[in-house]
Design a protein that fits this description.
With 442 residues, the protein is mostly helical. It has 24 helices and no strands. Helix 5 packs antiparallel against helix 6 (105-117). The radius of gyration is 27 Å and the shape is flat.
């Protein structure tokens, strides 16, 4: 079921959903004065660096339309998609770039990095091995390859890659830290100790390295030193200083073990209490988040039956359990809209977008509300942003086509309707709109 049809089940007055990038319709987004030339790679990179991800997507896409072999633009576009959590589209961009440039180490490295993010270890290793073969001195590619091997559990192979990086770049802290992790997991404690100490020498407050070093020191029975690593204080007594504010649950567990190993049972007991409180807080937070998610699902089922008061009550509960559950606010907006409580709908979707600014469904609902208000410019901007962030859905293109038709821009309307019909050929409304637009356009 499309998102558009799903929202219709909420008795919304307008179609709802989201779809692919408007950059396929025009080189530049509308209503944005001063938008830099999309052919300017530096400008596109600046948009990406500044966090203007939808605009960066449009800019990189425009470059690729003009220069399809542009390796830098393809990598930049994939990075922009990754920034809005659209790994599928990022992968598609890089796979296409790889077909055009099969011997590009940079494209392979970007693809391998993406597969690491997706925890697709075999795919990451395959891409990164090829990248390293093409660019043997690329330290970043080797670090990525080591990370993928470590993720898969092939620690010896990961160390082999990290050894090669550190032979040429002994100051590479990432390589040294990863090697220390692998060595510790292989119980190569003396080597892990040396590498972890070297990392902390360069970055004394890096908690993961402090925790790793403390773990190895405890194994080596250097327990007082492990305490000092985790709690570098002139007065380490828990009674007087309290738990160190930067220690997470794992580090507190290690600190308690270090105290006990050092023969400081009273201090160990005090830190174990801190650990228990932190563990309970983590568990309760996780439980609240899970409960909040389930409540949103239940509210959705009730809303589909037009049982709006009951659904809203569940959504209030969901938000109390997890105030950052953006989907609860989005559900509220849909129900408020269906009840003609438009001010409440606008406020709810604004809260959802404040938490997840580039979630396509939220942007679509914003567009639906703006369209109802008669604000075609705001609605069009929202639908266009949806299509940049996720160029795989048809519904937003359909809405763009409707607005363009009202504005008298029949060519843009036809392009949008045809894109909607292409993406969802089973929807008769899209097909009819595309055919009608084709008949009425030159």
């Amino acid at each position: 079921m499309s998102r558009r049809n799903a929202i219709l089940l909420f008795s919304l007055l307008f179609a709802a959903a989201y779809a692919p990038g408007l950059s396929r319709l025009r080189a530049q987004p509308t209503g944005q004065k001063g938008f830099p030339s999309a052919s300017d790679l530096a400008a596109a990179r600046a948009l990406l660096a500044s966090g203007n991800y939808p605009e960066a997507i449009a800019a990189f896409q425009s470059i690729l339309r003009q220069q399809p072999p542009s390796e830098a633009a393809a990598i930049g576009l994939a990075d922009a998609y990754r920034s809005v959590h659209n790994l599928e589209e990022a992968r598609s961009v890089l796979v296409s770039a790889r077909r055009l440039r099969p011997r590009s180490a940079a494209v392979l490295k970007a693809l391998g990095s993406l597969e690491i993010e997706a925890q697709s270890w075999d795919a990451a290793i395959a891409a990164l091995q090829q990248a390293v073969a093409l660019a043997p001195r690329d330290a970043e590619a080797r670090n990525f390859l080591a990370s993928a091997l470590q993720g898969k559990g092939d620690l010896a192979a990961a160390i082999e890659q990290l050894d090669r990086v550190l032979a040429e770049h002994p100051q590479d802290r990432l390589a040294r830290f990863m090697r220390a992790q692998c060595e510790a997991d292989l119980n190569q404690n003396a080597k892990a100790l040396a590498d972890a100490q070297a990392v902390l020498h360069e970055r004394a407050n890096y908690l993961p390295a402090r925790a790793l070093l403390a773990k190895v020191l405890i194994r080596e029975r250097q327990c007082a030193r492990a305490v000092q690593v985790l709690r570098p204080s002139p007065n380490p007594s828990p009674e007087s200083t309290g738990p160190p504010p930067d220690l997470d649950t794992q580090a507190l567990f290690l600190l308690a073990n270090a105290y006990e190993c050092a023969g400081q049972a009273h201090s160990a007991a005090a830190v174990r209490e801190d650990f228990a409180r932190a563990s309970n807080a983590d568990r309760e937070r996780s439980e609240r988040e899970t409960q909040s998610k389930h409540l949103v699902e239940q509210a959705g089922a009730l809303a589909q039956q037009n049982r709006f008061p009951e659904a809203l009550a569940l959504l209030d509960d969901a938000i109390q359990r997890n105030p950052r559950n953006a989907f609860a606010f989005s559900q509220q907006a849909k129900i408020f809209f269906s009840e003609h409580a438009f001010d409440h709908a606008r406020a709810a979707i604004a809260q959802a977008l404040a938490i997840q600014p580039y979630q396509p469904d939220f942007l679509y609902v914003k567009g639906v509300i703006a369209e109802h208000d008669g604000n075609d410019a705001e609605a069009l901007a929202a639908f266009e942003e949806v299509t940049r962030v996720n160029p795989k859905e048809a519904d937003a293109f359909f809405e763009i086509g409707k607005i363009r038709l009202r504005q008298g821009d029949r060519n843009a309307a036809r392009t949008a309707f045809e894109q909607a019909a292409k993406l969802d050929p089973q929807d008769p409304e899209y097909q009819l709109a595309a055919k009608s637009a084709a008949l009425t356009n030159p």
